[in-house]
Design a protein that fits this description.
By secondary structure, this protein is an alpha+beta fold. The chain is about 25% helix and about 40% strand. The protein has a single domain, classed as Pnp Oxidase, Chain A (Roll), CATH 2.30.110.10. The longest helix is centred in the first third of the chain and has 14 residues.
Length: about 150
């Protein structure tokens, strides 16, 4: 157990934005229309408003994200987690302009455009963001609600 003082919500937002800007991978939780859960790590790019992911359309994650239009993303370790619930937009692999695709490839070291049309982009727009480390940060963990930063 960590005995550190709870961070302010302002500090948690700063930490969350730093993680979104500098981390490369996160966990993507999705569910099939019958409710069967699926969890997979994927690389991402953050443009300041949305997260961009890529995977094959025929994977469980690709099918789930396309069918439900929602995802839960987990960023960081379990004792310093950021949870993001968001709406998903599915885009053909050639739908982004070159600059966006190049940015994703440079950041992640992975260029799905080179792998062909079976891949899709999945753009996630956050609707809720929570961040906490320990029990003492459960209060005030909501940093975003309905797509708006609360702090």
């Amino acid at each position: 157990m960590n005995n550190a003082e709870a961070r302010s919500r302002v500090q948690r937002r700063r930490d969350t934005e730093h993680r979104l800007t500098h981390d490369v991978d996160l966990w993507v939780a999705s569910a099939a229309t019958d409710g069967a859960p699926y969890l997979v790590p994927l690389s991402f790019d953050w443009d300041g408003e949305t997260l961009l992911l890529a995977t094959r359309a025929d994977t469980p994650t690709g099918r789930n994200l396309a069918a439900t239009g929602t995802a839960r993303l987990g960023l960081g370790p379990t004792r310093d987690v950021t949870m993001i619930d968001g709406d998903v937009e599915v885009l053909a692999i050639d739908a982004l302009d070159r600059e966006q695709g190049d940015r994703f490839a440079a950041r992640t070291g992975f260029d799905p455009r080179a792998l062909g049309p079976r891949y899709r982009w999945f753009r996630v727009t956050p609707r809720r963001i929570q961040a906490w480390r320990e029990e003492n940060e459960l209060r005030g963990r909501n940093l975003m609600s309905d797509g708006r930063w609360l702090v």
